Structure formats: C-alpha cells, structure tokens
Amino acid sequence: MSSLPLEHIHLEKNQLGGELGHVLFNFSSLITLDLGNNNLTGNIPHTIGSLNTLNYLLLSNNHLEGEIPTQICMLNKLSIVDLSFNKLYGPLPPCLGYLTQAKNDAEISRTYYPETSRLSLLNFMVWIRSKRHYHDSQELLTDMSLMDVETQVQFSTKRNSYTYKGSILKYMLGIDLSSNKLTGEIPVELGMMSNIPTLNLSHNHLIGRIPNTFSNLRKIENLDLSFNRLNGSIPFGLLELNSLAVFSVAYNNLSGAVPDFKGQFGTFNKNSYEGNPFLCGYPLDNKCGMSPKLSNTSKINGDEESSELEDIQCFYIGFVVSWSDLVGISCSTLLQSSLENSMVQDDRGIDVLLLLFCVGQHCYPHQE
C-alpha cells in the first residue's frame, strides 16, 4: 500500500477509532490528511515529520492526547493545520512560527485523474453515499478516484466553517488549535507568520502576555485568543493589522486600556473584550482612570475636610495658650500679693496653699 503514490486521504466524519497508525505516515507523496470528526485516540506520532509534501493536516474533533510533536515543524509545506477539539496538552511549539507559508501553485492546481496503478485520492464518504456494489477491489479503488478528482478541505474561519476546493486552496492558510488543554505562554515566534489569515488559540490554558510580535501578522483576518488565562495589556501594535475582521480576547485576565477605537478596531464591539474586568476604554463601559484613582469630587471633599480639621486644631491650640497666659498672670498676681501679706500677717497657711496651687498649675511669673 505504501508503494502507491497516495496524495489525498479523506476519512472524515466516520466512526474510526483507535490510535493513528504509523502506516499512515509512510506515504511520501501525501498532500492531504483529513481524519477529522472521528473517535481517534492516543498521541500524534513523531513519524508525522516524514510527510514532507503534506499541505493539509486535519485531525479536529477526535480524542487525541499528548503534546504537539515538534516534528510537525519539519513539514515546511503545511498550509492548514486543524487540531481543534482534542485533548492535546503542553506548550505550543515555537517552531510553528517558522513554517514556510509559500506554496507551490503547481501542486494545488494539478488535476488528479485516476490511473489503474495509482490511487491519488482516498475518500470513503464518496462511495459509501453511492451505495454501489463492486465486483473486486480494483474496480472499487478506481471508482473512488473517479467520483471525486478534486480534493476539498473544510476549515473554520471568521466563526464559520467553509469548504474550500480547487485553486482557491492555494490561498488558504490557517492554524486552529482551539479547544484543547494547551499550557504555557504564546511563543513570540508565532508573530513570524506574516502571511497567515487565521490563527485560533481559544479555549486553552495559555498564560502570559500577548506577544508584541503579533503586530507582524500583516494578513491576519481572524485572531481568536479568547477563553485563556492571558494577562497584561493588549499590544497597541495590533492597530497596524489592517486586514483584521474577527478579533477576540474575551475571558482572560487582561488589564489596561483597549486599543484606540479606530481602523479595524473601530469595528469591534465590547464582546471582543468581555470577561476582562480590568480592561478599560471605549467601547467598554469601564472608563480608564476612574477606578484606581480618587475622583475629583472625592479629592475636593477630602481637602475641605482636612481644612476644617486644621481650623479646629488651631482654635483649641489658641484657646489653651490664651488660658495658660491668663492663669499665669493670675498666679503671678496672687503670688506677689501673698508675699506682701506674709510680711504683715503671721498666718502662713494661706501662703503655702497659694504657692502649691501655682506650682501645680505650672504658673510662673509672666514675662513680657
């Protein structure tokens, strides 16, 4: 079987189970591998790196586990990678950012006509729907190729699923790793994919900041980073993405001001940012600068209260000083009078009492 130059495998939407067999990765001429919407389990084999002609890798909606193998980065002709809705975990391979996005038009525009010694396209869904009966396997294989000589790829972008086939495929580029259990930070290398229109990393456990290098995604149309654990601010360099049509960072831990409401960002409503209570700025209801700081009214009220307190303190201090001066003068007068009377009278008890009173009140002769 591996000696056949098989180029397209479409086994999507069946009830296929078990692990991905290594035999699938022995077809050196394979361009399309579509096993989406099945019940496949296990890891993505490292032998996937041997498919050096692969353009379309579609394994979404299965039960695949493990990390994304770095060998996938050896596939420098990959245009569409869809591993969404699986159970993949671990970090995003930084090398994904270096995948060659240039495609050979001759490979895509080629028309695949069946030959008796060549099986170019394997599509079980085509002949299952036909309900035809075949006398031998050669007739079956030939008919499978005759039924659909043009490959097609189903891929989700801009929140909708589309089917692409024929020459339009050469313009399709995209990576969808959504709805997995991927962790760690988003590699800055992903910003090197300047030609990619679709990047979906939503519904994972990614942390850290949105890379500033994302401002290099010049042709990005759909950027979805929602439902992760990203923090920090949204890079204002994203304002340079003039092709951006769908953008979402909803339900993360982002903070700070959202990009200015202009250009493509002037078309995004609050739904693009919801679930981030520390984001502020239009079109959000939370205005920047109000929550973390006192409002002007509060500041004025605080100044008034402080001024009133100072006035009260000054009043009491002045009162105490005046009272002390008055008592001091009185004590001085009484003391002088007492001393004069003591020279005439022998009753010294009163003098002692007056003296003790003045000392107890810290009264001393007042000096001008």
UniProtKB/TrEMBL annotation:
UniProt entry tagged with the keyword RNA-binding: no
Top-rank taxon, per record: Eukaryota
Q: Which Gene3D superfamilies match?
A: Ribonuclease Inhibitor
Output the InterPro entries linked to this UniProt entry.
Leu-rich_rpt, LRR_dom_sf, RLP_Defense_Trigger
- Alphabetical keyword list: Glycoprotein, Leucine-rich repeat, Membrane, Repeat, Signal, Transmembrane, Transmembrane helix
Q: Where in the cell is it found?
A: Membrane
User: Does this entry carry the keyword Nucleotide-binding?
Assistant: no
Major location (coarse) = membrane
Membrane topology annotation: Single-pass membrane protein
List the GO cellular component terms. membrane
For this chain, the family text in UniProt reads: Belongs to the RLP family.
What is the official name of this protein in its record?
Answer: Uncharacterized protein
Upper taxonomic classification of the species?
A: Eukaryota, Viridiplantae, Streptophyta, Embryophyta, Tracheophyta
